[in-house]
Amino acid sequence: MFKRFARLRIAALLGGLLLASACTASNSAAPAPYTEGTEYVTLPAPAQRYSSDGKVEVVEIFSYGCIHCAHFAPIAEEMRKQLPAGVVFKLLPAAFNDQWVPFARAFYAAQKLGALDQTHLALFQAKFGDHYPISTLDELADFYATKGVDRAKFLSIASSDEVTAQIKRDMAFVQKWQIDGTPTIVVDGKYRSNTVKTLDQLAALTQWLAKRELNGK
């Protein structure tokens, strides 16, 4: 069993940046399939939502540098497609250490350039499936260039003050949500995934929490 999928350090992130989770059921007596304090935890009030778009919010905290996130990515994609109307799925690229900052920068550059949908799973495949050396921002730029992304524009956006500020905002949420590993799911800023046995269970837990939250609104 694993509590999180990747134990990581948060220390020194900000300095480095300055240098560059009960569904309404027909049988109300049925036991909940997941236990508070085990598979998920309730975060301290008030809820700290990632956005204010009004929908129930599912956020996956991940990194392109995390092999467990690579294994979860296709499962998360199918989970996203099965989320009910009224639930929105978002990705937050964690920058727990200096090695993961370029991946967070790459995520936002790809998003701004409209290349995220076609490159998200492909980057995991290239790094962990095909074992290409993709770690630095230059190596990431080379990867995105093979997908038709303008290399110079990618590097400019990835290195921008705007992206640096976004990563700092993201890490403030990571700290509020008490996250120390990836992949982790946070639902509506209220519930965080905790101890799960498999990645499929993580997806099922996410569905349950999201539907419970949706039905409670």
Explain how this protein is built.
With 217 residues, the chain is of the alpha+beta class. It is built from eight helices and five strands; from the N terminus they run αββαβαααααββα. It has helices at residues 13-18, 67-82, 101-112, 116-129, 137-146, 151-158, 161-176, 199-216, and strands at residues 40-42, 56-62, 87-93, 184-187, 191-193. It has a five-stranded mixed sheet, sandwiched between helices. α2 (67-82) runs antiparallel to α4 and α3 packs parallel to α5 (137-146). The longest helix has 18 residues, at 199-216. 37% of the residues are buried. Mean pLDDT is 89; it is low at 10-28.
H/I helix tally: 8
Number of strands: 5
Q: Beta-strand percentage?
A: 5-15%
**Whole-number mean pLDDT:** 89
Q: Which bin fits the share of residues in helices?
A: 40-55%
Structural class: alpha+beta
Task: Characterize this entry briefly.
With 217 residues, the chain is α+β, with helices and mostly antiparallel strands. The chain is built from eight helices and five strands, in the order αββαβαααααββα. Helix 3 (101-112) runs parallel beside helix 5.
List keywords for this structure.
217 residues, 8 helices, single chain, alpha+beta
Task: Indicate the topology.
Layout: H1 13-18, E1 40-42, E2 56-62, H2 67-82, E3 87-93, H3 101-112, H4 116-129, H5 137-146, H6 151-158, H7 161-176, E4 184-187, E5 191-193, H8 199-216
Parallel strand pairs: 2-3
Antiparallel strand pairs: 1-5, 2-4, 4-5
Helix pairs in contact: 2-4, 2-8, 3-4, 3-5, 3-6, 5-6
